[in-house]
Design a protein that fits this description.
About 55% of the residues lie in helices and about 5% in strands. The chain is mainly α and about 450 residues long. A two-stranded antiparallel ribbon has the order 1-2. The chain starts with 17 loop residues before the first helix and ends with a helix.
């Protein structure tokens, strides 16, 4: 089943067959993405999930369990359980809740260290272990954040109070570490002299997920916590839109500690995938806050990011790009030994699966919010490239190929962690299905 891109000569704002596109995404989710994960990733023996597959998904290369990916998998299964009219004839709500509970119990039992932080990595049984080349167990606050996200969504699915209490306690630890600048951020530590966009981005997303869970509670004893979470959403929005988005309309991944842009390799590079993903976080927050200014700003940033981040020769979004739209460049003096510096230079022109799934949802969301036909053009351009490039040609395996080189050849390499993570693609498909369902219902009403 495929959806053809409309002819460019036709008014693009008239070409969005929401019903046809909705069926396409439902079919792809049910026949290509979900079978892989539901058949290969669930550890029914010890709990949790396997995610350390090679780039094709053919081989499980390790039974280790990254806390980061465990939390993400819980979110996906719990969100699937919450979907209305999902039409998954093979998988009902209770099945998804039961599969999510395998991860929830595994994390609650195993992931916390004595200091209250999450271990970054566990073995199959749940024993904490350091990542290769490291001594610390709690090497990344991002792992903690994804646990909060997963358990918050799980609470929405089945009202498990133990999961919510665990998420709240961990969230307070996360907030304290960010407030006191004592967080760790493997696999990409913050270089000396810099602030990183990613920490405010994850704070925004984590706070949104916990807020959604808390908003299902009417007990006034949670009012103070709700106010705190709301304040962190507003704080993260302010940091991202006020400091990391600059006058040129681009979002920079790193600025100096005084909130100034630095003219260096680290200070000039743009991460299109991160930018586009974060802009839909901002749009969601802006809708809840009834703030049209944030929506306009986020939509404009997405346009600008496509303008400089899209490969005009081969198609697709670059992994990293200089703010000029060229290969990353700039003074490297303050970046020597920085893991991000090496990655920017070696991987900048790769095409990754996850930014393109983010772009599919973000462009449709921008169109839904603005009715600007240029976002449909961006959507169809992304759709055509994405479904030509990333779905696994071996249909017996399913899922997507993670990394392609600039011209489209497969690259067998890890991204941030040595995992094949389902989070971005399935999350975006779910969000697209929800958005298209709403648009289809709106159209039928008229």
């Amino acid at each position: 089943m495929c959806v053809e891109e409309p002819q460019m000569g036709v008014e693009m704002n008239q070409i969005l067959n929401t019903s046809e596109l909705l069926n396409f995404y439902k079919d792809h989710l049910q026949t290509v993405l979900l079978p892989f994960w539901l058949e290969h990733s669930i550890d029914f023996e010890d709990g949790g999930y396997y995610t350390c597959f090679d780039g094709t998904g053919k081989n499980l290369v390790s039974t280790d369990k990254y806390t980061w990916s465990q939390g993400r998998m819980i979110w996906i299964l719990s969100k699937l359980a919450c979907m209305e009219n999902k039409s998954f004839s093979k998988y009902d709500t209770n099945t998804f809740i039961e599969l999510a509970s395998l991860g929830v119990k595994f994390l609650i039992k195993n992931c916390l260290l004595e200091n209250g932080n999450c271990t970054f990595l566990m073995d199959k049984k749940g024993n904490p272990k350091p990542q290769a080349g490291e001594n610390e167990l709690d090497s990344s606050i991002y792992a903690d954040c994804f646990v909060v996200c997963g358990l918050s969504q799980y609470f929405q699915a089945c009202k498990d109070k133990e999961a919510l209490e665990f998420a709240i306690k961990l969230y307070m630890s996360i907030v304290e570490r960010i407030d006191t600048n004592t967080f760790k951020s493997q696999p990409y530590p913050v270089p000396i002299g810099y602030k990183v966009h990613a920490i405010y981005m994850i704070l925004l997303n984590t706070s949104q997920e916990l807020e959604a869970a808390l908003n299902t509670l009417e007990d006034k004893m949670f009012d103070h916590l709700k106010a705190l979470v709301k304040s962190k959403i507003i704080f993260a929005l302010s940091e991202i839109t006020g400091n990391f988005i600059r006058e040129d309309g681009l979002l920079y991944e790193m600025i100096d500690i005084d909130n100034n842009k630095k003219d260096s390799l680290l200070g000039n590079y743009i991460n299109p995938g991160h930018t586009i993903e974060d802009m839909w976080f901002i749009i969601h927050a802006a809708i809840n806050l009834n703030n049209n200014e944030y929506i306009t700003k986020a939509c404009n940033v997405i346009k600008k990011t496509f303008e400089i981040g899209w490969d005009q020769e081969f198609g697709g979004l670059f992994t990293f790009i200089d703010n000029s739209g060229c290969e990353p460049k700039g003074d490297k003096a303050d970046a020597e030994g920085c893991t991000m510096h090496k990655k920017i230079l070696s991987d900048w022109n790769f095409k990754l699966w996850w930014p393109h799934s983010e772009a599919l949802y973000s462009t449709l969301l921008c169109y839904e919010q603005t009715k600007d036909p240029s976002f449909l053009e961006l959507y169809w351009k992304t759709h055509h490239y994405t479904f030509k490039t990333f779905p696994n040609p071996d249909k017996s395996i399913g899922e997507w190929i993670q990394i392609r080189d600039r011209s489209g050849a497969m690259v067998e390499k890890v991204v941030a962690l040595p995992v094949k993570d389902p989070y971005h693609i399935i999350r975006n498909f779910i969000l697209i299905i929800e958005l298209l369902s709403k648009l289809t219902e709106s159209t039928s009403d008229h």
